[in-house]
Structure formats: C-alpha cells, structure tokens
Structure prediction request, 430 residues.
Amino acid sequence: MRVSIVGSGYVGTTVAACFTDMGHDVVNVDIDQDIVDAINAGKAPIHEPGLDDLLATHGGDTLAATTDYEDVLETDVTFLALPTPSKEDGSIDTSIIEAAAETLGDTLREKDGDHVVVTKSTVIPRTTTETLAPILADASGKQLGADLHVAMNPEFLREGTAVEDFQNPDKIVFGSDSETAIDTLHEIFKPLIEASDATVVETGVEEAEMIKYANNAFLASKVSLINDIGNICKEFGVDAYEVADAIGLDDRISERFLRSGLGWGGSCFGKDTNAIIHAATETGYEPAMLEAAVAVNDRQPERLLSLLDDHGDVESERVAVLGLAFKPGTDDVRDSRAIPVINGLQERGANVAAYDPVAAENMRTHFPDIEYTDAPQDALADASACVVCTDWDEFAVLDDEFDAMETRVVVDGRRIIERRDGLTYEGLTW
Ligand code: UDX
Prediction:
C-alpha cells in the first residue's frame, strides 16, 4: 500500500521503516529538513538498534521523506505521529497534532476519492473524533464516513528496542467505527499479523486511545508499587529484590517491571500518567491510585539523597554520579532520575563529577557547570561518595575503580553495583 506518515520522531521513523520492510511504499512528512535528508540518504535520523539497517535498505527508495505535504496525495492512508507533549500543568498539549491535521486536511482538499487518517500519537480519549476529525473534515471538505475515515492505532514502542517492539508486538490495536479504516489497517499490518503471534484488537476509537494510556499508567504504577513495597522493605532491613523474585513467580504479578529503585523517567511514563490524571480530574473523577504512583516516583530521588546524608555531609565534597540516561541503552535524559539527584547534590553544596557512556552531552544542557568524565574511575577518583542513577551493565563490573575514592560511600539507586567489600554500600530498597 501507499502510506504517508506525518512526523518523523522515534515513533514515526521506526513505523515508516518497518512499514517499508513489510513491503509498503511510505512517505514520511516532517518539517525538519535534516531529518528528511538523512532518511532520503538511507541514514537513521535517530539512534535505535536495527533502524540503520532498515534505512540503509529502504531509505530513498520505498521510504521517501519530504517537507511537502503534497506527497500525501499519492497515498491512501496517513498516520499522524506528532509529539503530544505536556503543558506546565501536566495536561496534554495537542497543538502540534492539531496543526498537522489542519495542514493535512488542506492538502486532502485536492484529492478525489477516499482517504484514511490514523492517529498514531498518544492522545486523550475523544481527541481523534472530537478534535482531529472535525479539523480534517472542515479543512478537506470531505465527509466523515463517506470519503474521509478516521482511526486510532497506538504504538507500544520502548526507546532502545523500538524496532524489535514493532516487529514483535503482543497486540495490534485498531480503533475505529469505519469499516473502510479497519480494512485498510488490516491490509497494512497483514504481513506483521501473519509473521507474529500478535492478537489483533478491533475496538472503538476512544477505547484505542485509552488502551495506550492504560498501558503506560499501569506499567508506571507497577514500578511505583514495587518502589512503595521496596521502601517498606528498606525500613525493615528486608531485600526487596528477594521479595520481588518470589512474588514475580505468581503469573498474575509476573516478574517484569519489579525492579525497585530510583523509579521511572523517559518521555512517556510521566507525560502520559500526568496527562490522563489531568483529563480524569477535569471530568470530576479523582484518580487516587495514579496520583499516588506519581507521588511515590517523585519521592525516590530524595530517598536516595537522604541515604547519602546518613553517611555524612557532602558540602564542598566531590560526589561521583554514575549514570545519567533515564535507562540503559539510550542517550535520552528526558525526565531522567539523575536530574533531581544532581539538583539535590547541588543544593547540598557538593561538587558533582558525572559519568555516563552516552548521555553526558544531553545532560550538559541541564547542568553545564558540573564535571563530566570519560570513564567511571575518573569520576570516582578522590570522591567522598558515589551515587548510581542508571543500571548500565558496565557498572556491574566496577571493582578496584572504587579504591581511588577518598571515602568509599556508594549509594546504589539501581541494584547494579556488585562489589561490596571495602565499601560503605547502601541500596535504595535493599
Ligand atoms: C515506555 C513503555 O514501556 C512503552 O510501551 C511506551 O510506548 C513508551 O514508554 P520507555 O519509556 O522507553 O517505554 O522505557 P521502559 O523500558 O518502559 O522504562 C521506563 C522507565 O521505567 C525507565 O526509567 C526504567 O528505568 C524504569 N523501570 C522500568 C524501573 O524503574 N523498574 C522496572 O522494573 C522497569
């Protein structure tokens, strides 16, 4: 099929590349000329394992990129994969996707025949039918249900495994009340449905929008719940990881997402959980559990710092921070737990020396004045303490590097440091 995708971030680019790999012709529309040039040159504009190969194979061929919406007219279906960031109050900002819908609608005015528009971005329930569909209909002059069809098809891609997640889905969700739209989505996803054992979920548009929020809010809440339990374990001197391993054997709980520690960061969990909390509250319902999940997550960095306080004053002392990315395998520091930890260390007057294998440059925009080192031992040298914020595998093998510390206090926020002898070691929940 001939598919267009508006927006070429880590979702839009990954989906475009995977669609071409399924045999479709895809045009990616983006405002950023550098992204467009990279894709047409067969280069991935973002780092995602496996994306380089897909771009090298299809970029500039069956995957074309452009800044010009007109190319949409050559396609049968358009996916909207635009950012839906948070406003100051945590509510969703749909201004970018609304503007894209307006421009898409204007362009579709020139097209004879049907067109399907699919929301790929994470949007609050009713956004597609009550906000985007009217914009598209007004701007294109097309009639909903006649020659204009809308649907919602959420993605469940994790940073660092986006290509793998797309190609190995547990579910593929099609939300629409238009048979034309549902049939179009089936045709696009047919190769993936046949190649994977994914369950196809056909549902309403609002249900599909809510499934995305429920998925993220549930996972974020699961992490906060194991952190709440982990904090209780710490007070009783109990190892939360021993407890998690045992309860994870209950298949109703499962072993995944039970790693207690500094909590969640990233571009989705905080954004989506706060957006659905805000939207729910607007209806008059108070989502107490989700509010508690956010509150527990917000508290974890301070708990780590108070463990550090128990071992002495860090004012004017060198403190090594190991790990800056919001999780291993990415250079992304958005909502990273290292940010409130470094803020807290600066409030305590510490001199921070930070190390991360790939995320230092991104963190420099938040903290231009701290020291960044090229190796963990350089951050640890002469340090009075060390805090660990990201569970990079390379931290698990650190051993004699700690000997260069002035005093060997190590507060581990991610249960990754193996060596304990000769260290004053504190685990956040163990
Ligand atoms: C998440 C969702 O998993 C994905 O489905 C959605 O599409 C986008 O948001 P992502 O944010 O990339 O993906 O990362 P994920 O691997 O889910 O981890 C999120 C955060 O939770 C990370 O900061 C991670 O360190 C933390 N986490 C995860 C824990 O603290 N404990 C765990 O057990 C698991």
Summary: The two ends are 53 Å apart (CA to CA). The chain has 14 helices and 14 strands.
